[in-house]
Amino acid sequence: MKKSISLILLFITCLYACRRDNTSPEPQAYGLLVPANFPVPEIMKDNMLSEQGVALGRMLFYDKRLSGSNQISCASCHKQALAFSDGVALSNQGASGKPLPRTAPALINLAWSNNGLFWDGGSTNLESQAFGPITNEDEMHQNLDELVYELNQVPEYVKRFKLVFNDEIKTGYIARALAQFQRTLISGNSRYDHYTRNEAGGTLNDTELSGLKLFNTHCRSCHAGELFTDDSYHNNGLDSDFSNDALEGLYQGRFRITYDPSDLGKFKTPTLRNIALTAPYMHDGRLKDLQAVLAHYSHGVKMSATSDQALIHNGQPGLLLTKDDQNAIIAFLQTLTDNSFVQNRDLSEPSIP
């Protein structure tokens, strides 16, 4: 039997003390628990994980001070019980009350996401990504100078920022702390994982095994490897015309960032881990459940110049899956639910000062 978890200590000894006492005057290296069937994540040398940095990021993630109204936190749209998604197509819970143009993505295994964030890859990394929702007038609508002022009124925050970054509170440190916490949102303990690691509790029934075989045949080109994403961008046939996008190119996908015509309609491949918990689906939440998703890929694919060629089967658009095939794939996808992830108290809301 293989070990289910490998411990990767992300630290530089000259920077971090060896003690794990959170009262230490120096931050201690954070031991990132990486499932044994996962690849090794890239070490972010300019924002090394520390015990205290992760704890600070967790506090900030759940703190409503990050919004201009002090009524919205990151967790308002990224709920742990829903694998850090929000369960709605286009949320109207932001500062303006207007429906957002895209659905909130689930936050899962971001330590491996190194090819852009947001649905179009408009942010380079987690550190830069944080400023988007915090400052957006329809989301958290917070003035960054005001945020720094508010956090400076809390002695516990002043102390923690000084400990983690050896400096006063600055906007860049806020983003770095949030990024540290989000890189610990690792999900790799589903029934599928127990199966692939030959562990107790890793039994798949005949339907689920059939679904796994079909999935490997039809879906792995984009939902690759143990992360169930290739971390890239694809046009999956939701639309065929992108010429009348009046929302600043938001429905033109990756093209909005690259201005490369070959990227029209391409969006980031989401991980399928915990997919049964993160409905509705697609960048705009237009597909309400997994049945709708499989129906789309089977017979609903719309072709355009940039449509992914993997979605053409026997010369026809769509995978042409039978109803039994679709149900089997759905049965397999449900084995990717990681209850320990959505119930992990170390990721839940802490005491906010």
Q: Can you tell me about this structure?
A:
This is C-type cytochrome. Its cofactor is heme. InterPro entries: Cyt_c-like_dom, Cyt_c-like_dom_sf, Cytochrome_c_Peroxidase/MauG, Di-haem_cyt_c_peroxidsae, MauG/Cytc_peroxidase. One of its GO terms (cellular component) is periplasmic space. It holds the Pfam family CCP_MauG. The chain has about 350 residues and is mainly α. It folds into two domains: about 5-185 and about 340-345, Cytochrome Bc1 Complex, Chain D, domain 2; about 190-335, Cytochrome Bc1 Complex, Chain D, domain 2 (Orthogonal Bundle). The protein contains twelve helices and six strands. It has helices at about 50-60, 125-130, 130-135, 145-150, 155-165, 170-180, 190-195, 205-220, 255-260, 290-300, 325-335, 340, and strands at about 5-10, 30-35, 235, 265-270, 310-315, 315. The strands form three sheets. Strands 1-2 form a two-stranded antiparallel sheet. Helix 1 (about 50-60) crosses helix 6, helix 8 packs across helix 11 and helix 10 packs across helix 11 (about 325-335). The longest helix has 13 residues, at about 205-220. The radius of gyration is 21 Å and the shape is globular. The chain starts with a strand and ends in an 11-residue tail after the last helix.
